[in-house]
Amino acid sequence: MSRRQPLSAARSLTRRNPCREPRARFLLICEGEVTEPEYFAYVKEALRDHLLVIEISKTHGNPLQLVREAVARSRSAASKARKDRDDHLRYDQIWCVTDVDSHPQLSEAKMLAEKNGVHLAISNPCFELWPLLHIVDRRCQMTSREMQAELRQHMPGYEKSLDCAKLRGHYATARERAMSILKQHERDDNLVDSNPSTNVWQLVDELLCSKQRADGRVTTSPL
């Protein structure tokens, strides 16, 4: 019968704490109650990964209300992280998804967001431009009502919900169109009244990059 080897001095009898992999945590706060949450629920499902946490807030409102909520949530998470001594409880990024429309306090919201490290995904005139760019290259100036009406033409039943299945496979095209529109506004020196425009792709890019970092490899976009 073999004898059990004596414990080495280098070996510890103390049980190690379980290893916990860091997870990227995103908090998204949307102005609208239907279209934006439905779109990001679709993105969340497409990017499902145990190392990527996408939390979609139920808070809605104008841009300033959204940013104030974002700042409060950020501070609350940071406080809990300090109390529990767990930095994983902090949010890595917080985004407010809002429209330009006719919000008088948008400039104030931008300043508060910049001061507190909150990111903004802004669509002009409204969020509907982003799904519409998945379908057509829309560059003419439009009102929110006109934008929503055109989206209904391409997506019957849009009044009740956003048919995200029609968007799948067209993210790269929508991103390219949105970037091209912004460059056109820059050439025309028209960034103040940049209708139409959207930078929602920047938020989606951050989500995609976080998933790729979690996976440890570059993968084809599931969007």
From TrEMBL:
It holds the Pfam family RloB. It comes from the Bacteria. This is RloB family protein. It comes from Kibdelosporangium lantanae.
